[in-house]
Prior knowledge:
Radius of gyration: 17 Å
Distance between the termini: 57 Å
Number of domains: 1
Shape: globular
Largest sheet: none
Amino acid sequence: MRIHEILADLLQHRSDPPGLGDQPSVEDIVSALGPRSFGIVLVLFGLPNLLPVPGLPILCGFIIGIIAFQMVIGKDHLLLPRWVGRRRLKRDDLARVVVRATPTLRTVESAMRPRLLSLTTPTSSRAIGGVLLVLAIALMAPIPFFGGIAPGLAVILLGLGLAERDGLFILFGAATSVAAVLLTIAVTLAILKTLTFLIV
């Protein structure tokens, strides 16, 4: 089952599993995703950053940071702190994002297959977790509106690569991560410089 199918099934209007209620908790979503939760949760919480929703990149950044930390320390299944796991999200908002992203996800997934498997080993996953930690910080940078797009895209590519065991997409995600972090630093410095100028 491909990722876009899992997400669509998860977020449809149903009260019985695998569907979710109107305001599922983050823990509900992770539990419903099962053993592929690392990669798919990264995709799920990377997608909202492609839309200019104020404050959402910060929440996504926290969650992605927690996922990344667990990857770095070698966890083989995702655990969330209670205060994060109990955080509730609007199912309709998540469903709207998934619906808009599904055509692109379907096209991308058609090109994906297991390859360059050395980049999907537990050791490599720890290194990817380190990259994701940096992206999580970038998502929480004080950049309004479109600041989460570049790091969000990098998170999605890495999540797809992990979920589908496609090392080529992990490489794409790593390259995008470098560009996203550099862009975030440049924009943040520009904003701070402008604020300093206005204050002085």
